[in-house]
Amino acid sequence: MRAAFIDAKDVLEVREVDVPQPGEGQVRLRVDFVGICGSDLHYYFEGANGEYAVREPLIPGHELSGRVDLDPSGRFAAGTPVTVHPARFGAPSAGIEDEPHLWAGGSYLGSASTWPHTQGAMSEYMIVESDMVRMLPDELSIRRASLAEPLGVALHAAARVGDLTGARVLVSGAGPIGLLAIVAAQERGAAHVTVSDVLPETLERASALGADRTIRVGVDDMPREEFDVVFECSGAPVAISSAGVAVRKRGTIVQVGMVPNEPRPVNLAPIISKEVTLIGTFRFRDEVDAAVEVLARRDDVEAVITHEFPIADAARAFAVARDGRVSGKVVVAL
């Protein structure tokens, strides 16, 4: 089978490797589509995602969809369309017994955070535990289902706030996660969704997905104290500071975009003086199930996918995914 390996910074090669064999409690999948995430881009273009460096060849990818190829237990029939919850959870921790995505000792597909690395989905066949598999409803195409993982991230961010019914929402950053945050806010009842970004191309995608208003950073003025909730999806310090200006008194900022594990200059003064609630959000618990349901009834969300490349052109796919001017979500077809 073919699989894409990141060997080091700027070094990606598609190689032939043996087809893996499932063990007890495992399922072999035939992967059809894999989305390229920000962490994948960091591994390829920087050789590391934050503190996690590539120390051995790494198969990237945790946003996947495909079909069951072999299930020794017989739980899933061959050919069943599926997506995957990409986490293997660690041991329960005191105080967060119901939040397995925060437990220590777990792993995530396509991650260098473990040793050996946890290999990902950019291969024609892969092995996962049977409890990671999610069957797709008839209404959901396999291609669109590759968005289940990133939409799960956005839905978890919305869940961290709670009820958004009637809320005025700002989504800061219109990359793929920002676009899916629009969907999450809409699904959770937001009355009005504004999207801000520096690139006009990304704002066009936001408008096509139903954003009520767009703000081009550096061109348009950012409203002051207008929004009940801000989903900050860029991770840029200036955008985090702007969120503090845009949110209303006693409003909420959800920090969705990842930031490096190092000090960065952020203006906290308005967050303090307005008694703003600042919430972190990390991956998701079980929101991939809700994501499958949303994707099954919303054909429009597939527009988040702007490019599809065959695995033979994986390096080209990464280059396009890096440029927000030309791409939203980029998927690799296997």
Commentary on this structure:
The chain is an alpha/beta fold and 334 residues long. It folds into two domains: 2-135 and 298-333, Quinone Oxidoreductase, Chain A, domain 1; 154-280, 3-Layer(aba) Sandwich (Rossmann fold), CATH 3.40.50.720. The chain has helices spanning 38-46, 142-145, 148-161, 176-187, 200-208, 237-246, 269-273, 287-297, 314-321, and strands spanning 2-8, 11-16, 26-35, 48-49, 52-53, 63-70, 81-84, 87-88, 107-108, 125-129, 133-135, 168-172, 192-197, 213-216, 227-232, 247-255, 277-280, 305-310, 329-333. The strands form five sheets. Strands 3, 6, 7, 10, 11, 18 and 19 form a seven-stranded mixed β-sheet that branches. Strand 12 (168-172), helix 4 (176-187) and strand 13 form a beta-alpha-beta unit. The N and C termini lie close together (10 Å).
CATH homologous superfamily title of the largest domain: Medium-chain alcohol dehydrogenases, catalytic domain
- Outline type: globular
Number of strands: 19
Cα-based radius of gyration, to the nearest Å: 20 Å
Structural class, judged by helices and strands? alpha/beta
Average pLDDT level: 96
Which CATH architecture of the largest domain?
Answer: Alpha-Beta Complex
Per the CATH scheme, the topology name of the largest domain is: Quinone Oxidoreductase, Chain A, domain 1
